[in-house]
Amino acid sequence: METSTSAAQKMTELSPLHSESTFCESELSRRSSDERLSESVTQPFSCKPLIPSRSWEQYECEKLLGTGSYGEVHVAREGFSGRKVALKQINFMGSAHRVDIEREISAMKELDHPNICKIFGTIQTERSTTLIMELCEGEDVFERIRKHGPFNERVAADVAYQAASALHYAHRCGIVHRDIKPENVVFVSFASTRIKVIDWGLCCPMSRTRAIAGSLSYAAPELILAKVTGEKDCWQPAVCDTWSLGVVIVVMLSGKLPFHGTPQQQLKKMKSWDQGISRDRLWLAMSPEVRNLITGVLKISPTERPAVGSILKHPWFQSKAPPVMSKKTADQVLANMHEFSRLGHFYAVCLTAAARLLDCRQEDILHLFRSLDKHGNGRLTLQEFTSGFAKACNADRAELEDLFHDLDKDGSGTLHFTEFFAAGMGSALLEDKALRVVFEALEPKDGTISAQEVRRLLKTCDIKKRWSESALIDFSEEVFSRLDLDDKGAIAAEEFSCGIRTHLQTVARAPRRGSRRGSKSSVQLVGCWPFWSCLPFWRRA
């Protein structure tokens, strides 16, 4: 192995050239390493398409969580990372069922929200597809109510807001859940009130549909009516999610299903709901705000029912908003973001992949993201980002604008949670487990990767198709040569991790650039964890 000094020199990696079109290979080849290091990462990428294929040999099943007509769900231990995951095995039941499975996988790839369960990969066999998913170790809402009784308004508002934010994000992505119920809202741990919306197997596009799906006890009146009459007029599925969420709120506060029985009985109860809530002693003891919210979302007519996004500003939620994050945490995250913004393209892809393929359990960064997300839609606008950090850190707005554009890796004009998480987490993404997850996402052969695996990763994440094939080859070989610290022509997991960390150390030592607008930084980097702070002390010298 080379010395850390020579390794750091070798890791001085090029960044993509600033161009709106495909790279000019001749210009790429004549740039020196020093020039490449100083360039900004300007080419868009996204790690959403990164859903690696795994094998059963990499997992050890520990516990059966549940069974259904489709298959089984297990808690399993991932061999290469040691973390626990959920394995949802779905047995094929015909060609149409395969299409449904692919739709669920495609939807989960797109959904990048802190309250939506992540997919980490798949295991494909001739008879089944197994989804490797984030494990929520707590019980679902139904089970918590069964054990402990109805929620108080503060907890119910917190859970409902998170679920509404997740649904609003999904709807903006053009995806409707169609099976919102307490069993599909799961707590991340037994002690937490943070939730994940799970089971997107019945999801559909936002367009109007005639299909009836979901659990009838939580289904909207138009679906129940179609069940009774057999007439399947087109309806808008998004407001069906609104209704189902309203029923979940009622169940959380009362512990009872408001609309049960036969479809005809359900319709009768739905029509008299407004009168019932105004006379029932249980609801009269609740706040006027929650009664107003429930009567608003449980409108019989779908045209009068609000979209999920519009209820996030309801006074019931606003009165129970999360506390503002501390200046210390905001300073730490902002410092890490400045470090991240200076990474070369490949290393930014790797750390974003780590954030994409890991579950985030850091409550401080989750609360910070939520406090910045004023619209509750699961993504940060330029205004939300700059206003929030300027207020929390007394930071320069011009520099914050530059930083925002640096972190907007997919060029969408907003920051998705993974982009925020990757840039803000700092040294946590350099732990052995995190980097091993990225290494395994490259799908190594015989425990090592080649330039071909590097090229495949870059091509998968090149969502705008800015790279020509020849530029991809040149760039991948350049990156590979800098990671291949022992010049053996293959990179093992430990060497990969060492190479990533060494590059981060080089970037951390380099002087930070000022604002593109020419202003000096006014950000006070207080109590930060630098990206390279987890390096062994002999590598920091």
Automatic annotation (TrEMBL):
Residues 360-394, 395-430, 471-506 form the EF-hand domain. Belongs to the protein kinase superfamily. Ser/Thr protein kinase family. CDPK subfamily. The keyword Nucleotide-binding applies. It comes from Effrenium voratum. Residues 27-37 have a biased composition (Basic and acidic residues). Monomer. This is Uncharacterized protein. The lineage of its organism: Eukaryota, Sar, Alveolata, Dinophyceae, Suessiales. The keyword Transcription does not apply. Pfam families: EF-hand_7 (PF13499), Pkinase (PF00069). Residues 1-37 are annotated as: Disordered. Keywords: ATP-binding, Kinase, Nucleotide-binding, Serine/threonine-protein kinase, Transferase. InterPro entries: CDPK_Ser/Thr_kinases, EF-hand-dom_pair, EF_hand_dom, Kinase-like_dom_sf, Prot_kinase_dom, Protein_kinase_ATP_BS, Ser/Thr_kinase_AS.
